[in-house]
């Protein structure tokens, strides 16, 4: 059973980062930005800022328990020719600006591979990512560990996400949040980075899919079923770790973000989850269906009134549409 109202409540009350926390994040990032702009050394190079990662793409979720949540923003800088031979200098200079600030200098702050991380006690940490347009036309971020530039295309990634989410009737972002909840809160496929998960889920969305199953992205649970089963089929055809290209068109891959061990574990877990989602979705008894969804997502998945949750006719229609797909799963290992 779809249990659509249950999913709406689950996303709103449990999975999604609250509006209050999002507002606090906005406020703190703006304060950090103003402080860096006022710094005499790094300030003159700053030309703007933009959200990055799950914050930018609308896939950020609540942290586990009392853990911190994290968010990234890109600090748009112009080139300083004196630092041309050492890209990591940009990270070092941002770190130094925070270090000498009257407020941020007293807070935990550290240099990471691609950012400077500033931590707020018992609430959040913010990653500040230097981002430049080089004279040769490249858009880049810094890899401090290797002291080199890495190509990036944040506008291209955002356009890709918007296109894919549009095809999925604005349900792709919700599915990504649900899958991140499984990873973070339920301990499934740990080690798989968010950028890889987002890319793999998003790449399974396509307009051609709606030609064979017009309702496949009609609501959250149906989109979850469609994308995860499609991802499962794709993964089962690839026992060895595949190359995952940045869908923005930057020309880079995310292959360095995981290895064969992490990939194999992810592949096995998605195979299991595809079966669990199909079982919960196809169950026609409401109480049993809720129990199956809770087996997957935990007891935080809510129990709504039967009249609000039951959508059995649509469930049956979609199950018939995907009959061949479901049958093809028989006999797979996992």
Alpha-beta classification: alpha+beta
Query: How many domains, as an integer?
Result: 2
Instruction: Report the average pLDDT across residues.
Output: 92
Largest sheet: 7 strands, mixed
Note down, in words, how this protein is organized.
The protein has 334 residues and is α+β, with helices and mostly antiparallel strands. The chain has 2 domains: 18-152, 2-Layer Sandwich (Beta Polymerase, domain 2), CATH 3.30.460.90; 156-327, no CATH class. The protein is built from 14 helices and 7 strands. It has helices spanning 4-15, 19-38, 53-57, 88-99, 154-167, 172-185, 194-203, 209-212, 220-236, 260-282, 286-297, 306-309, 312-321, 323-327, and strands at residues 46-52, 69-77, 109-111, 116-120, 124-133, 139-143, 148-151. Strands 1, 2, 3, 4, 5, 6 and 7 form a 7-stranded mixed β-sheet that branches. Helix 9 (220-236) crosses helix 10 (260-282). The chain is globular and about 65 Å long. Residues 310-317 and 319-334 have low confidence and may be disordered.
